[in-house]
Amino acid sequence: MHVIDSMPLSRRAFLRRAGHLATAGAATPLGLNLAAMGEAAAFTATDYKALVCVFLYGGNDHANTVVAYDEPSWQRYRSIRQAGPGPAGLAVDRATLAGTRLAPTTPLAGGLEYALHPQMGGLAGLFDAGRAAVLLNVGPLVQPTTRAGYFSADRERYPLPPQLMSHNDQQSVWQAQKPEGAALGWGGRIGDLALSNNGQSLFTCISASGNAVFLNGQDAIQYQVGREGAVDVKALTEGAHGMRGNPNQAAVAERLRAMLTEARGHVLENEYNRITRRAVEAEVVLRGALGGVAVNTPFPEGNSLAAELRIVARLIAARGTLGSKRQVFMVSLGGFDHHDRLVEEQPGLLRKVSEAITAFHQATVELGVASQVTTFTASDFGRALASNGNGTDHGWGGHHLIVGGAVRGKAFYGTPPPLSVGETDAPEDQGHIGQGRLIPTTSVDQYAATLARWFGVTDAETSGLLPNLSRFGSAAYPVDLGFMT
């Protein structure tokens, strides 16, 4: 039995909760067109640009995604990961990596080489074509951090991100710089700055994968879509529950529509109906816009990430009808928490990631916006380099990919991490906190700032939306990582 709290609601509490419901998608947005407000506008866009975050929930094992390939490095990697099923333990067999070996335009120092997982041939092809880049060892940082700083008891001098290695908290820190419970994400705050560029600003920040703090802005509302497009209010299209096929279905649906959207004399009833009315209007606008576009690029079937990226491609195709010049999207794929069955389960997930992003990039080529759409990956955290016998445990830093026509591709950015799990004072052991859990050498703030600058956000505004960015900016920790043209 469910107990309903019947505590009376004040008008302020009602409105606040109604606002929170806006993240539920087309059913309850607060407004269809806020562009006239223009309070947060940072710039005037004359072209179209979109950022697409691909979040890999669970903490992707980066070392089996971007794999050490040169012979000495692979041997060290294999020796560390030798525990586990198969002759190479958890390590990816080097013989299978030749087809996904990454040959950057400028080779890495010391003869270092990497390959993508053998199931990521599509992304390896984009790298070779100069349309993808790899960012090495990135993760949340409050300030540049060393092993000594991590183990210091002086947190005032050596601050760390909150709740390291906690799934929910680190997902939130990646997306919003704060642990679980954060209200605003950096994607949404970028959206705040772009609102006035869009004819219908409700469609500035769009999620195809459910609620995520990444897209919550101060003024920008996270609008959610399904894999086929607008999410309708079924009672208004089908009538009351159980009415399907009933000859009175249309009449009942129309009456419900009137009840839920008409003006009311009571202030709370009227506010609720106003919100619902705008939700219905948004659904109609989006459904009409999507009905007028086509994306012919094939996307792989049975791939949930591909289905989410397909609707993003359709939304981009409808940008003219929607009056959109700046948009931020979020899609996701789960299942990456591989404490066990890493070699059995991760390859299939990485294949889905590669096939989905490759198809999406091809769709942007078809639409003529490949240089105006940038896709990037993120995850809770990287994982330990050490094997636990059948998988790997939670870590900190990890590797990620950036894809798009504006990416300075066929290149690595960031700092190659050590292949070490030792607990000594040797230099190679200073880059991790034990078991090969990497201390990031690039911060999420730097990652986000580079993307935001390309999007059109000014330097001053970038510093404002990324609170830790002021702690970076040295030659070793540049604010702009250089991977965007």
Report on the structure:
With 485 residues, the protein is α/β, with parallel strands linked by helices. It has one domain: Alkaline Phosphatase, subunit A, CATH 3.40.720. It is 33% helix and 12% strand. The chain has 14 helices and twelve strands. Strands 1, 5, 6, 7, 8, 9, 10, 11 and 12 form a nine-stranded mixed β-sheet that branches. Helix 1 (11-20) runs parallel beside helix 9, helix 3 (121-128) crosses helix 12 (342-367) and helix 10 (304-317) runs parallel beside helix 12. It starts with 10 loop residues before the first helix and ends in a 20-residue tail after the last helix. Residues 1-40 have low confidence and may be disordered.
Secondary structure: number of strands: 12
What share of the residues does DSSP label as strand, in percent? 5-15%
CATH A-level architecture: 3-Layer(aba) Sandwich
Distance between the termini: 57 Å
What is CATH's topology name?
Alkaline Phosphatase, subunit A
Using the alpha-carbon principal axes, give the shape: globular
Radius of gyration over alpha carbons? 24 Å
Query: How would you classify the helix and strand content by structural class?
Result: alpha/beta
Q: H/E element string?
A: HEEHEEHEHHHEEHHHHHEHEEEEHH
- Summed up, the helix count is 14
| Sequence stretches where pLDDT stays below 50 over 5 or more residues | 1-40
Q: Average pLDDT across residues?
A: 89
The CATH class label is Alpha Beta
Helix content: 25-40%
